[in-house]
Structures are given as C-alpha cells and as structure tokens.
Amino acid sequence: MAAQAALAVGQALLFSKMRSYATEVEVSYDTTLRVLMGALDTKDKTTQGHSARVSRLTLSLAREMSIPNDQLVHLERGALLHDVGKIGVPDAILNKPDSLNEAEWEAMRKHPMLAGLMISQVGFLEGAMPILLYHHERYDGGGYPFSLAGEAIPLEARIFAVVDSYDAMTSDRPYRDAMSSDAALHEIRSHAGSQFDPQVVDAFDRVIERERPAQQRAS
Length: 219
Prior knowledge:
Blueprint: H1 2-43, H2 50-64, H3 69-81, H4 91-94, H5 102-108, H6 111-119, H7 129-134, H8 155-169, H9 181-190, H10 198-211
Helix pairs in contact: 2-3, 2-8, 8-9
C-alpha cells in the first residue's frame, strides 16, 4: 500500500510539472505571436497597432456574448493572427495610398486562405482557424472566400468581423480620416442583417457604450 501511495504521489507530481511546463510553453508561444503580429502591423503601414486593438476588443465582445472562458484564448489568438496571410501579399498592394484595382483586390482576397495554409500545421493554433478563414464572410452570403451565410459562419468569425470593421473605420487610412466612434457604430448598425450578425451587433453596441468615455463618443 505504501509503495502504491508513493507511486500515485509521484505520478501526480509528474503530471503537475508537465502541466506547468506546457502552460509555460504556451505562454511563450503567445508572446511570440504578439511580437510577430506587431512586425506584420509594421509591414502594413495602414494598420499599425490594429492586431493588438482588435484582440482586446474581441475578448470584450466575446465575454459580452457569454463565450466560455476556455474558448477565449482561441478568439484572442485568432484576432492576433487574422491578417497573417498578408505576409504573402506584396508590400506595394498593402501600402498603396489609393484604391486597389481588380487584380490587386484579387491578391488581397487570398489572404484568409494563405493564413489557413500557414497555420494549419501548428496544432495549438487550431482553435484560431475560424477567425483566420472566415472573418471576411458576410452574414448575407456576399463575403469571401467561401460565400458562407448566417450561422454557417462560425460565431468566432461573426464576432471578429464586427470588431475588425469598427477598428478599420475608427483608424486613419491614407485615403480617408478616421470616423468617430458614433459614426462607426451607426455604420455597423446599418449593416446588421446584411454584413453583420444582428445579435453580435447588439452585443457590440453594449460593449462600446460601456467602455468608451462619454466625451469620446462624438470625437
């Protein structure tokens, strides 16, 4: 009995150490992801800081929609990595100061599939794939790359699509100034049911109203 008890204690300690090591490795990987995505934001001059902002806001929206805590890490990673496929898009297209032509848009539209191919071999990032692949789908089926519609689009991607669009609208671009938060929210509400999931839009509205200072609402 004593030997069995000692063995059980030894196995428990070993399991605890292995779990602790796995957690440390995962934290190290996530730190590396943030560094890499910061580098990608630098490559695309129009979106510097975008990945960090959308990652934070995606988590806030996911919590508002009662996404289980153990799933939040996958949304955070997906938000950080959503544009990793742009590594395969020429800098001249990413940083073009005016509108893209059709050939350039075609190259840009490939980035979700490129991201999927890049990440598919990285096991611990499997949970991030829905955002990477589907964040440019539209609720009405008019998006890309698969023309999915409604709940056929994974919820993670429907959540992220709203956050991504809001951050894009409230950030400066070479061809336009940033919108105010109110103007961006109005634009998102006007596309509920077409571009965006209406339930996600309602939840996002609550998040923004709660998080932003009143004096910034019409800045």
